[in-house]
């Protein structure tokens, strides 16, 4: 692994363990995140983004095997995740083991299994899910590149990751589907 990548993962894990927010490159767009089990850290993100607390956020995991630790997961979901080559966020029923202020009123949680050398390794080493929400203030467009992120938002993050800042990611925000209690699902974002 590249030395700079290694250092940035280490710095990010330290920041997350300390309850800080991080501004980081996800497998889709630049995001602002924190420890998904730390309610105080989650609260910081709502404040930074000026985001309505009724709007829940996505969490990221590194492997599908960890899903059952955080929500009710029907068996067919594993095939669905395996069969997609694009980023897919799934809204699961009966969220658990997460910060209470991260779980939606209907007890659901949106989770994406990430790919990518930085993000998946960060989550693996941290050992917990990480919040991911676009690195913008509520109501503003999602940033495509690091340079699209407002300087004001950058200054509010506890730690800003220093790699991949010049990379232009052709990936858009993930597709989002919601699992319904009857075994069907609804497409929320294409």
What does this structure look like?
The chain is of the alpha/beta class. It has one domain: DHBP synthase, CATH 3.90.870. The chain is built from 5 helices and 9 strands, in the order αββαβαββαβαβββ. It has a 9-stranded mixed beta sheet. Helix 1 (3-17) packs across helix 4 (117-126). It starts with a helix and ends with a strand. The mean pLDDT is 90.
Compile the SSE list and pairings:
Blueprint: H1 3-17, E1 22-25, E2 30-33, H2 39-49, E3 58-61, H3 76-83, E4 88-92, E5 109-113, H4 117-126, E6 130-134, H5 151-156, E7 159-160, E8 175-179, E9 185-189
Parallel strand pairs: 1-7, 3-5, 4-8
Antiparallel strand pairs: 1-2, 2-6, 3-6, 4-5, 8-9
Give the CATH level 1 class.
Answer: Alpha Beta
Please give the order of strands in the largest beta sheet: 7-1-2-6-3-5-4-8-9
CATH topology: DHBP synthase
Low-pLDDT sequence parts: none
Quaternary status of these chains? single chain
The CATH superfamily turns out to be: DHBP synthase
CATH architecture: Alpha-Beta Complex
Q: What's the overall average pLDDT, rounded? A: 90
Number of domains: 1
Secondary-structure content class: alpha/beta
Order of helices and strands: HEEHEHEEHEHEEE
Count all strands and give the number.
Answer: 9
* Strand composition percent: 15-25%
Classify the helix fraction into a percent range: 25-40%
Largest sheet properties: 9 strands, mixed
Question: If helices are DSSP runs of H or I spanning 4 or more residues, what is the number of helices?
Answer: 5
N-to-C span: 34 Å
Rounded Rg: 16 Å
- How would the global form be characterised? globular
